[in-house]
Amino acid sequence: MVARNAYRLLALVSALALAYVFFPQLYTSIDYVRQTNPFSGQKYIEQAFVASDSELACLHGVSLPSDGQTHHTHDSTADPIPNVVHFIYGLKNPLTDPGAGRFDFLNYLAVRSAIVSLKPDAIYLHYTYISEPPSPDASADPMTNPWVKRLSPHIKLVHHPPAPDNGTQYAHLSDTMRLQFLLEDGGIYFDIDAFALRPFDRILAAPQPHDVVLGHEGGNRWGLCNAIIAARANSSFVARWLRSYEHVDFGREWNYHSVLLPKEMAAEHPDEVCALAPDAFFWPTWTWRHIDWMHEPLSRAAAEHWDREIRRHGGSLFENQLAYHAWSQMAWDRYLRHLTPETVRGVDTRFNLLMRRFLEDDV
C-alpha cells in the first residue's frame, strides 16, 4: 500500500512538473488555434482595403470631398493641431499588480520615435509609478529609472497621484485621461506601445470643423482606435466622447468606448472627425498572422527590400503609413518582451528595421 501511494505521488509530481515545463508551449498552441481558426473573425480584420477619397484628404490635410471644395492646408484659417505629444504610463502599482509592467526599453523606443519623427514642441509623459526598481511610493524619484533618465532632457514628466483603490479600471482611466488632456490643451496622444514613423504636419492641419484625427482599425474598418489621437483643444467630438464615460459599466464592456463608440460617433458627426485609412496608424493589425509578419526573421534579400522601402517612404513600411501600433497586449509574450538594443540592431525583422533609427548610439 505504501509503495502504491508512493508511485501515485511520484506520478502526480511528475505530471505537475511536465505541466509546468510545457504549459507555455501548450498555451501558445491553444492561442494559435483560437486566433487563426476560420471562425475567429481575424480574416475580416486582415482583409485588403483601399483608402477612400475622404481618408486621403485627411492624410494630406486638405478639405474633405464632402466640403464641396478642395484647397490646401495653407488656405485654412484654422490653427493647426498643436504638435505636442502626450504619453501615459504607470497608473497601476507594479508591486501590487505585476501585470502593470515597468517602463522599459520598448517604452523608451516609443518616446524616442516621437522625438525623432515628429520633432514636437513638447512631449509630456504622464505617470504615477515609474521608478526602478518599483516602489510602493508613487512619489519615488522617476530618475531612478534609467530609460526615463535617458529621455529626461527631451520630455516633461507630469506626476499624477494614485487613483482611489475602489475597483478602478485602469485601462479606462487612461482612456479618460487622454481625452481630458486633449480637450484642455489639444495635441497628439500615443499609447506607450505606439511609434511615430513620419511627421504628422499634414494631418495636424486638418481643416475645421474636422478637429479630431483618428485611424481606422482593421481592413474592414470595424472601429476607430484611441491608441493614437490628434485633436484641437475644446473639440466638441472629444468633449462628447469624454462625457460618454460617465455612466459606463466597465465590467460588462472592454473596447466599446475605445474603438467602437468613436466609429459610431463619427458616423453621427462626420463633420467633426478626420478618419484615416487603416494603414495610417494601425496596419499591420493585432491578428496572429500580422504580429508574426512584423517580427519574423527576414532573409538578407527580404531585409534589403524592406530597408529600401522604409527609406523610400521616409521611415515607414507603406506609402501612407505615419505610425505603427505594436499591439503589446497580443505581441508581448511572443516577441516584444524579448527585445533588447542588441536584438533590434542585430536581428532583421520588419519591426526592428523600423526601430533602428530611434536607437541612440550609446544604448
Automatic annotation (TrEMBL):
SUPFAM superfamilies: Nucleotide-diphospho-sugar transferases. InterPro entries: GlycoTrfase_DXD_sugar-bd_CS, Nucleotide-diphossugar_trans. GO terms for biological process: carbohydrate derivative metabolic process. Pfam families: Gly_transf_sug (PF04488). Belongs to the glycosyltransferase 32 family. This is Glycosyl transferase. It comes from Echria macrotheca.
